[in-house]
Write a structure and sequence with these properties.
By secondary structure, the chain is α/β, with parallel strands linked by helices. The protein has 10 helices and 12 strands. Strand 9 (about 220), helix 7 and strand 10 form a beta-alpha-beta unit. Helix 5 (about 100-105) packs across helix 9 (about 275-285). The chain is globular, with a radius of gyration of 19 Å.
Amino acid sequence: MNASFVSYAWSSLNRLARLATECGVLASEKLPCRVISVGNIQAGGTGKTPLVALIAHEAAARGIRVCLLTRGYRSEWESRGGVIAPGPKSADPKSAGDEAALLHELCPAAWIGVGRDRVRQFEEAQRAAIQPFELVILDDGFQHWKIKKDIEIVAVTSDGPAEAPHRDFAETLKRANLVVWTKGEARPLCAGRPFVRVHWRIERLPGTGADIPPELPLHLVTGIASARRAREAIEASGFRISEHSRFPDHMNYNGDQVRGFLAEAKKRSLAVATTGKDWVKWRALGISPNQVLVFEPLPEFSEGKDLWLKTLWG
């Protein structure tokens, strides 16, 4: 289906939802703590998950008790809900979803409420945590109307609604407290809002790829929304990719499939590499971290770091 048509239809529905919220037809609830929302207007591939993790780390460094709320897209908990407690134990991606499992990997000190009903999951996480939360980070929250937000952060790329499906019109960025340009070369339209830019430093997740010789070229396997840009960032970091297998976002892998990647790569003297979002599902299938290089992007500010810090913590 044409991306422009999808973008227009999706954005129109969300415009109606906002109007209904403003008129009181749809009710929003105020949580008993500060709420920072991280979202986007483009459907996926904007890098909001690393931004959520960055805020969680900055909050923890300030001694702030944090709860992350995420939907758990395509997970068992999306409808019935669940809570991931802090700690070293890995989260089950089948129960919690790949994004929630990755957030736990990146932010092991945070409580994470998972489920479509985020107010209920906040309450469940708060009961489990006992000590009151001081900050909620609402993952993918720009189109979420059930919770009132203190700060709206919106990640944008250079892609317009004709290049990638959008779920909000660009004019809605006037509601953002801060717009973060995450990908692409052409400056996006930001409706005159406070603006920062990040670039990505590719890091290998600790403990992965221990058995892989550094000189081997890579077979990259991705099931994410922005596979092309992920590959470009990995190559820009000095890695050589000989083959790239691309799958749909939130790909549901099986064990035989992943072991097949590993066996074929070994025969061809390649190393298998993937992303953190894919890795949490591979690990649950029993794949050893020593066999796989796992890459995760970390945001670094190219423009506006002081504005970021002032908006969030100033």
